[in-house]
Amino acid sequence: MSTDATPLRRRHPPRNPAHFLSPRRRAMSSTPYDRQTSFALQSAENPKDQIPGNIFDAEFNAVKLAMDDTQQNLSLIQDDDGALKRGSVGRAQFDSSVTIGFAAPSQWASGVLYTADVNTVFYNSIFYIANTTHTSGVGFEADKWDEIADFTAAAAISDGSITSSKLADGAVAGNKLADGVVANSKLATGAVSTNKVADQAITNPKIADAAVSFTKLAPDANQVIPAGALMPYAGGAAPTGWLLCNGQSLLRTDYPSLFVAIGSTYGAADGTHFTLPDMRGRIPAGVDGGANRLTSSFFGATAALGATGGYESHTLTTAQLASHSHANTLNDLGHVHSGALNTGAFFGSPGGATNVAGNATTNTGSSTTGITITNASAGGGGAHNNVQPTIVLNYIIKAH
C-alpha cells in the first residue's frame, strides 16, 4: 500500500471507547447506526490504494453497537417465542384518544353519573358498559349501554349448594356480596352461622326480599327467642313460627323443639300429643317457688308450673265478712192493767163488830206491751267483680 495515500475521510470523529461496552451494562439506547467512513469516496480518491483495516474495524464496531442496541431493546418488549412481552406496553404508551379498560362493575342505580367506555354495571343479571356519558334516570335505559356478558342463564351456584362447610369463618364479607345477591334458594338449611359472617357484612341491601327463612339459620339463632317463649300479641292471628295459646293439642313430632321446652306440663291427650297453655281469659303469674305470695288457700291450687286458679267473680261467705254490728230501733208504747175487787171477803154482818176474814183477790185483764224492734236486712247475696283493669290481647308461643 502506498505510503503517500490520502487518509480516509471520516464523517465524524472516533467515538469514546466506553461506547463499545457490552449493552448489558448500559441503559436502553436509541442511537441509530452512524456511518464512520464513505468507502465510495475513499475508492474514488485513492483507486490504487488498499483500504486500511482500522477503518473497517471502526465501521464494523459502529454496526455492532447499533445491532447490540437493537437486540437489547427487542429483549425488553419481546419474549423468546416472538410474542409481545407481558407488561411491556402500558397506558402511557397509548395516545390520549385511546381508552383502556373499564371501571369495576356495580349494580345499576338511578341518579348516578356514568362515563362512556369506562363505567360498567350489572342489571338483571346482564353485564353492561356505558356507551354514552349520562346521568341515569328512574329506569334503566338500554340504548345507553352495550352488553358485555349475559349471566341470566348461568348456574354458577346451584340451589342449596352454599353449605356451612363451604364457607371459611368470616368469609361472608360485605364487599363480597352484590346488593340483593343472597337468595333463599342458594343457602343450605342451617348454613349461615354467626362465625361464617364477617362483622357487619350482611346489611339489608345485600339480602333479597324474603330471602332468609328461619330454616336457613343455624341453631344458635334460636337462642334469640327460644321455642316455648310466651308473649302478648295484639294481632288476631299468630305470625309465622308462633302459635296462639288456646290450649290446643299438638303432635309432638310436628313441634319437637316446643315439646322439649314445655313437655306435657299443660296436659296431653295421649303419648303422641301435648297441650299448649290455655291463656284465654287468663293472666300469667310467676311460679311461687316458696315465696308464699300465691298460696293454695287463696289461689285455689298449688302455684306450680302449669297450675291454674282464680275466678272472675266471688260470693262472700259469712266467715269472709268483716266483724260488724247492726243498729236497732226500739219502740215501747205505754199501757194499763184493769182489775176486779171481791168486797165480800172484807166485810161481816152490819151493825156488829167488823170482822175481816178470808182472802181478797184482784183479777187484771191481759194486755200487750206494744214494743217493736226493727233490724233491716242488707245486701243481695250476689257475687262481686273480681277483675282488675284489663285489655284483652292474644298470647302466642314460639313454636320452633
From TrEMBL:
<protein>
    <recommendedName>
        <fullName>Phage tail collar domain-containing protein</fullName>
    </recommendedName>
</protein>
<dbReference type="Pfam" id="PF07484">
    <property type="entry name" value="Collar"/>
</dbReference>
<dbReference type="InterPro" id="IPR011083">
    <property type="entry name" value="Phage_tail_collar_dom"/>
</dbReference>
<feature type="domain" description="Phage tail collar">
    <location>
        <begin position="228"/>
        <end position="284"/>
    </location>
</feature>
<dbReference type="InterPro" id="IPR037053">
    <property type="entry name" value="Phage_tail_collar_dom_sf"/>
</dbReference>
<feature type="region of interest" description="Disordered">
    <location>
        <begin position="1"/>
        <end position="32"/>
    </location>
</feature>
